[in-house]
Specification:
The longest helix has 17 residues. The chain folds into two domains: about 120 residues, Leucine-rich Repeat Variant (Alpha Horseshoe), CATH 1.25.10; about 100 residues. With about 220 residues, it is mostly helical. The chain starts with 10 loop residues before the first helix and ends in a 5-residue tail after the last helix. Helix 6 packs antiparallel against helix 7, helix 7 packs parallel to helix 9 and helix 9 packs parallel to helix 11. About 70% of the residues lie in helices and about 0% in strands. One of its GO terms (cellular component) is cytosol. Keywords: Repeat.
Length: about 220
């Protein structure tokens, strides 16, 4: 992009062409330079045009089956946070989509980016992260989504309103008893983090049972 500095240059169309390129190096390079496109467009056009486009294209063939592309997008969504003038809520839904993917590295990166967005804007947790978490936790057709829900629970619990915490404890209890061993293992892996943000009385009331249950299983 170094040579494309004219004021009449169409940065968005350039980006669209680059990510459709059959050359993987060009395509991934375009994704990794997404912040440059956002900077050139400015926050208003990034919010109105760039983000809706990438949200759509990530779910369409052939890019929806390109793991390297999806991984790069999962990382770049967090970077876009600096170029959208506070509209970080627009990043939650596309990251939720990536957090349900089959490939572990894509899910992990999506979770990492979600955490960065929420840590930057904790006020998004009650209204945006909690519904996202509940959707992931109740996806019966994708156990990978439920694995991601386990990873998000400690962060969500730390930033939500008191009247939402019981629902999150119930979600965690449900995940601990999930029929899929991988989900139970993910819940067990996050048990210490989740317990650390819960009040002692809530632990005794809601979580001691699942703790004993998981401790009896080979979940390591």
């Amino acid at each position: 992009m170094a040579g494309n500095t004219g004021t009449d240059f169409n940065y968005l169309e350039f980006f669209k062409e680059e990510i459709r390129n059959e050359n993987a190096t060009i395509k991934i390079g375009a994704v990794n330079n997404l912040h440059l496109i956002a900077s050139a467009l400015g926050p208003n056009r990034t919010v109105a045009e760039l983000i809706p486009y990438v949200v759509q294209v990530v779910q369409e063939e052939p890019l929806c089956n390109d793991d390297e592309f999806l991984y790069s997008m999962a990382r770049q969504y967090a970077v876009l946070s600096d170029y959208i003038n506070g509209h970080d809520d627009l990043l939650i839904a596309p990251l939720e989509h990536l957090a349900a993917q089959e490939e572990t590295v894509i899910r992990d990166q999506a979770i990492q980016s979600l955490c960065k967005v929420i840590e930057k804007r904790p006020a998004l947790a009650p209204e945006h992260l909690v519904p996202t978490l509940h959707r992931l936790a109740t996806k019966t057709d994708f156990f990978t989504a439920r694995v991601s829900a386990c990873a998000l629970l400690p962060l969500a619990y730390r930033h939500v309103k008191d009247d939402q915490k019981m629902g999150l404890r119930r979600a965690f209890t449900m995940l601990c008893a999930d029929e899929t061993p991988m989900v139970r293992r993910a819940a067990a892996h996050k048990m210490r983090d989740f317990v650390s943000v819960c009040a002692k009385q809530d632990l005794l009331t809601d979580l001691i049972g699942v703790y004993k249950q998981l401790s009896q299983e080979d979940t390591q």
